[in-house]
Amino acid sequence: MNTFIDKKSILNKTELFVKKQLKNDYSGHDIDHIIRVVKNAKDICKEIPKANTFIVEMAALLHDIADHKLLGDKGEKLIKKYLDLLNIPNNEKNEIFNIATQVSFKGANVEDSKLSIEGQIVRDADRLDAIGAIGIARTFAFGGAKKRKMYNEKESPVFHNSFEEYKNNKGTTINHFYEKLLLLKDKMYTLPGKEMAKKRHQFMIAFLNQFYDETGYKTPKMKTDL
Ligand code: ADP
Ligand code: NI
């Protein structure tokens, strides 16, 4: 069997599988998010020739299936079951599983787990889609989908110390910028990722300044300063 065609058909099949799983998502984790993350990841890969692009693409496609916000614990089982059906070596399956289940941000004060270069690429690619214009749009979409307030003068942003705290927080959308989005530029792993994050970060700062100008609202000081 021709490996190239085989891998390509596995990627196509995986995209369809993911599309079906995420079809009811309106919180910024739909198939379009996945496709953008795959594209970011491929762009990063162009500058990192040693990376295994098949593993990168597969993990990028599957990374939100295991997300706590979407399917909870069921997601991990689902990825395992799906990977088990594929005709690829076990070490590749394990690596795709590891990356897809570990890319997630888990709180400002929670250290990222260590990942291979392929994992670092997927993590950066996902983080890029959390910042810039698209990051802003997704964050407000998420806030609306979860019925959160956009801002509230009485609530300060919080740096979460554990994944449990981060996962259970019901903060405002503007606070999420301080709790996660503005921190990401310093939490990128690859050089191309770091470079791509700079412009997106600046755009968020400009957005927030304009937002404060128009609304007269100012984010209260952080409870825990960095
Ligand atoms: P990851 O993609 O690393 O799993 P998150 O679970 O933090 O990251 O969330 C992904 C995206 O969902 C965020 O970048 C943001 O757009 C949105 N989001 C998550 N939590 C919130 C929140 N509390 N308020 C607004 N948007 C949120
Ligand atoms: Ni994602």
Could you walk me through the main structural features you see in this protein, from its secondary elements to its overall organization?
The mean pLDDT is 92. The chain starts with a helix and ends in an 11-residue tail after the last helix. Helix 2 crosses helix 6 and helix 3 (53-62) packs across helix 6 (117-128). With 226 residues, the protein is mainly alpha-helical. Helices cover 58% and strands 0% of the residues. The radius of gyration is 18 Å and the shape is globular. The chain binds adenosine-5'-diphosphate and nickel (II) ion.
Tell me how many strands there are. Answer: 0
Ligand list:
adenosine-5'-diphosphate, nickel (II) ion
Total helix count?
10
SSE class = mainly alpha
Mean pLDDT across all amino acids: 92
Major β-sheet annotation:
none
Query: Which regions are unreliable across 5 or more consecutive residues at pLDDT < 50?
Result: none
N- to C-terminal distance? 54 Å
**What is the overall shape?**
globular
